């Protein structure tokens, strides 16, 4: 009697699996190489199956990817400065994990879960005693996104001649912390 290994059932397609596969393609090959067909191939499904989870197709996928890398939640800290630092550090790490979709984070207007997270951040800073929390959140976001953009640019991530890009740069870490401290001091006045 010959025993054949049991065939594994396919992993059900979900919005989360689609986003995960799309992030992998964008991060490893670049956003321009992310097509619905390539995504379908990576998921081992017909591209049309993706539309059941993202009815607006590629536009919905781009929105979902932007939301994924711009939705950060942190616990309230004892001071607004500590809360702001925790949020900025968490957002920076999330953006650095997915350089392939940084352009979307920089250009897509905040929607859905990102708007909810921004509201939470604003509320946390206001509850921590910061007078102009909405302006502070906008300023902090601009700093984080700009610093990550410079970091990714310097890293060689988008250069086709670079075999391996630098994910950790101690100088970038020091620059980020110095800039964040200066910005927080400026927001106190």
Automatic annotation (TrEMBL):
Record's protein name: Transcriptional regulator, TetR family
Domain HTH tetR-type intervals: 12-72
Keyword terms of this UniProt record: DNA-binding, Transcription, Transcription regulation
GO molecular function terms noted in the UniProt entry: DNA-binding transcription factor activity; transcription cis-regulatory region binding
Top-level taxonomic group: Bacteria
Keyword rRNA processing in record: no
Record-annotated DNA-binding residue ranges: 35-54
Keyword Cell division: no
GO BP: negative regulation of DNA-templated transcription
